[in-house]
Every structure is written in C-alpha cells, then in structure tokens.
Design goal:
By secondary structure, the protein is mostly beta strands. The chain is built from two helices and nine strands, in the order αββββββββαβ. Strands 1, 2, 3, 4, 5, 6, 7, 8 and 9 form a nine-stranded mixed β-sheet that branches.
C-alpha cells in the first residue's frame, strides 16, 4: 500500500509513533477504530470512484492493512473525524459492542462495517464484524 509523505506525516503526528504495518494478518483482530485515506484521482476503481485505503488500528495499538476499496458501508452509527487532508478516523458512535475483523476477511471493493442484523438490532453477538 502506497502513502504520500503528507499522509504518513499526519498519521505519525496523530499517533505519536512511527507508522508501519503489523506483520500479522488482521483476521480475527479486535479493532479500536479505522483510518480511511482517499487515494485521490490518480487511479480509479471500475466504478469510476477513487480508491480508498483502510487501516485498522488494533486494541493492541498496531496498524493493520485492511486493503484498497472503492467504498465502505456501515450498518452501525459512526463518528468521523479528519486527521488531515484526505485522512479520516472512523470510530463507533455508541454501544458496547467491539469491532473485530472477520475471520474470513479478504480485501474486495466493498468494506462492510456490521451487517443488516446490526442495522435491525437483531445481532446478539458481542462484537461488530468488519470486512467484506
């Protein structure tokens, strides 16, 4: 995954540490929040939209590569903050459920936060699944 100097600078300024991905796979990891970075108009998905890069910030404070996507969809309330130009922090808004990367996660065009059961309040799990 490529990053501009400005994106790295914004990440390191906010997290107060050197930015580097964990060598571990993200599958099954508890995630505190996400960072979404617009890749700009340099390269576009087949849908015609620019790619976004998604990083999972683990409960263990490690950076996890969650891949390139052309959009994300959420079935739960979110809080979105800007960390700099084209860099956004995505956090859960309310609730006690933890976020966890799906065990079967692979990076595809759609990145999903929760599912329709979360939207309808029917999901009884103690975590909200992240993935595709």
């Amino acid at each position: 995954m490529e990053f501009t100097k400005e994106e790295i600078k914004n990440l390191e300024k906010y997290y107060k540490k050197k930015f580097e991905f964990s060598s571990e796979k993200p599958n099954g990891k508890d995630i505190d929040h996400l960072v979404v970075i617009s890749h700009g108009n340099r390269e576009k998905h087949d849908s015609g939209y620019p790619f976004i890069k998604i990083i999972g910030i683990g409960k263990d404070e490690k950076f996890y590569d969650l891949g390139w996507h052309d959009h994300f969809c959420s079935y739960v309330g979110l809080n979105v903050d800007s960390l700099g130009k084209n860099v956004f922090r995505i956090m859960k808004w309310c609730g006690k459920k933890r976020w966890r990367v799906a065990e079967h996660f692979i990076s595809v065009s759609s990145f999903m936060i929760g599912n329709t059961e979360d939207l309808l309040g029917e999901n009884q799990e103690d975590y909200i699944e992240l993935g595709s």
